Amino acid sequence: MKKQYALLNLAVALFIAFSSFSQNTEFIYGDALPDSPLLSARGDYKVGVKTIEFTNTNQLDILKSKGTESAFYDRKLKVEVWYPANLGSEEKELVFYDEVMGSSNDPKRPLIPFTFQGRALRDAKPVISDGKFPLVIVSHGYLGSRLLLTYLTENLASKGYIVAAIDHAESTFRDAAGFPSTLLNRSKDVLFVLNQMAEFGKKKDFLSGILDADNTALIGYSMGGYGVLNAAGAGYSDNSLKLFGALTGGSTALVTRLGSNEEYKASLDSRIKAVVAFAPWGMERGVWDAESLKGLKIPTFFFAGSQDDISGYEKGIKAIYNGAVNTDRYMLTYMNARHNVAPNPPPAESLKPGLHIDEYYRYAEPSWNEKRINNINQHFVTAFLGIHLKQKDFGKYLNLPQDSNTKTWEGFKPRSSVGLELLHAMPEGK
């Protein structure tokens, strides 16, 4: 009997020890894998997170406007903000994000709520002793949400950035609506949030005195890439009106974002210092042309999959990279990857049998480990923004051989930089 009790106590002790180990070593989106590149590691700051909401009043409602009769509405944008935080000795960097799978406009893909963990503390006190932190604005894809890239948003906040990710109205999993709203509003939302965050940082609130909106970067994925490139100077082509008009019954509302429009040129914001565009959509549809791409003059980093079947590669993302001749630009290509070179890894809920395959392929890559992609993205975005927003000496992490297979890239573990290509081009005449 004593022997049985001893074995039972040992089993219980082992179970408790294993459970404790599992909890302490649980992988959270953005954590470093053993072969993660150097700059993917979290920074020195603890991270706080807060949800705020902005309302852009009296905006054109393109989905309800008909012919010459225009409808208007107040456009509400929920924004998640991550920031360097001061945590007490008893406080932990742990947050649960509420998300959904599915699409509100697709009966075959009902909304399925789920939660996932992050390394941040909800409503934590911000760091107020280290001066101002640059602003980063993040724009998701269609469909998507402000929580689609938490592996990156939390990581950047830990490195001394204030990161604001937007829920673009009528473009999220929860409120998906007609595509023309996304086409019209993406860049407008980004610029509006930039202005609101700048004002937010001046008022007596949790970001007062610590937000440097004059030193801003934009990050966009897919339709977010479409939007941030336009916000940064890549005005849409005159030909894009054909696509927009065909979807909206001939509406020309997009004319305000054309590169040839003086109103558009006046909207360009000198506070934007760098742009990161993950798999930007639109080039294959004529959204840009050689002339309109000349307007992009802000340093830009493109990320792409060589087999992208949503945005296109040779005639899509790479064509944007080649056509942006007036900017210092990079393009990292994941060889044999498709479109999902930016989001968090697939949630555990997407693995359940019986779900639509797109719940998994909203996040996953067929030829790549998404966690591996996340770490590589963290590394290169840290290097790029560090150079342009923090004046860091990170040039050696970008001055690399084009083909990663020929020699291990700087900052990568031996033998780990395979399947990648990095292009770099300076503005014409330089």
Number of helices: 10
Secondary-structure-derived class: alpha/beta
CATH topology: Rossmann fold
Helix-strand string: HEEEEEEEHEHEHHHEHEHEHHE
**Percent of residues in β-strands:** 15-25%
Q: What best-fitting shape do the alpha-carbon axes yield?
A: globular
Number of domains: 1
The pLDDT mean sits at 93
Radius of gyration: 22 Å
3D structure, described in words:
The chain has 430 residues and is α/β, with parallel strands linked by helices. The protein has a single domain, classed as Rossmann fold (3-Layer(aba) Sandwich), CATH 3.40.50. It contains 10 helices and 13 strands. Strands 1, 2, 5, 6, 7, 8, 9, 10, 11, 12 and 13 form an 11-stranded mixed beta sheet that branches. Strands 3-4 form a two-stranded antiparallel ribbon. Strand 10, helix 7 and strand 11 form a beta-alpha-beta unit. The chain is globular and about 60 Å long. The termini are far apart.
What are its keywords?
single chain; 430 residues; alpha/beta; Rossmann fold; eleven-stranded mixed beta sheet; 10 helices; globular; disordered N terminus
Ordered list of secondary-structure elements with their pairings:
Layout (H helix, E strand, L loop, with lengths): L1 H23 L21 E15 L11 E15 L8 E7 L10 E7 L2 E2 L2 E2 L6 E7 L10 H8 L4 E6 L11 H22 L10 E11 L1 H10 L7 H8 L14 H6 L4 E7 L11 H4 L6 E6 L7 H11 L5 E6 L22 H5 L8 H21 L29 E6 L5
Helix pairs in contact: 2-10, 3-4
